[in-house]
Design brief:
Helix content: 55-70%
Strand order of the largest sheet: 2-1-3-4
Number of helices: 8
Strand content: 5-15%
CATH superfamily of the largest domain: N-terminal domain of the delta subunit of the F1F0-ATP synthase
Low-confidence stretches: none
Mean pLDDT: 91
Largest sheet: 4 strands, mixed
Structural class: alpha+beta
CATH architecture of the largest domain: Orthogonal Bundle
CATH topology of the largest domain: Peroxidase, domain 1
Order of helices and strands: HHHHHHEHEEEH
Length: 184
């Protein structure tokens, strides 16, 4: 089974438990904390990924470090991933869980590419327009790509929009190359 499918299945199982327990957001925050710890603590990642360290030792360390910081079911879930040797998927599981939570809450994460850093007013305006276009609350993540020259490009799920100056110039160039310039 592909890693993405496995991560989605794990996330879905925890999400369903979160719905039953009315704790979807708390479980999501717990998974996000685990993902952040793995990002910011490379030693923890290596510790969990090392096959020479016994599963029980990994679980003991995780229990000690996280028992006061995570909801009980989330801690048990993390320990289960260690039991099943799926701890390397915790960050992907967290991402899949966030996607399920966003869908439930009517949110859409949007990758927004701009040619220059937008100010606060521009970010708010872009977020508002994206929310209107997508029909749900847009949560934009901005990234500056100077090669766009100007304009904006965004991606949300399967939807891609490229309104950059670079794209427009490329389209004009193709039209000029295909236009028959011979006159009679």
């Amino acid at each position: 089974m592909r890693q993405a499918t496995i991560a989605r299945n794990y996330a879905s199982a925890l999400f369903q438990l979160g719905e039953r327990e009315s704790a979807v957001e708390a479980y999501g925050a717990g998974l996000k904390l685990v993902s952040l710890l793995l990002d910011e603590t490379p030693g923890l990642r290596r510790f969990l990924d090392t096959p020479r360290i016994a599963t029980e030792e990994k679980k003991r360390v995780l229990r000690t470090a996280l028992q006061d910081r995570l909801p009980g079911h989330v801690l048990n879930f993390v320990l289960l991933t260690v039991d099943n040797r799926r701890q390397e998927l915790l960050q992907e599981i967290s991402g899949e869980y966030m996607a399920l939570e966003d869908e439930r809450m009517g949110r859409a994460r949007v990758e927004v590419s701009v040619a220059r850093e937008p100010d606060a007013g521009e970010m708010e305006q872009i977020q508002s327009q994206l929310s209107r276009i997508l029909g749900r609350e847009a949560i934009p993540r901005f990234q500056v790509k100077k090669e766009l020259l100007g304009g904006i490009a965004f991606r949300s799920g399967d939807m891609i929009f490229d309104g950059s100056v670079r794209r427009r110039l490329e389209r004009m160039r193709r039209q000029l190359l295909t236009t028959d310039l011979s006159t009679d």
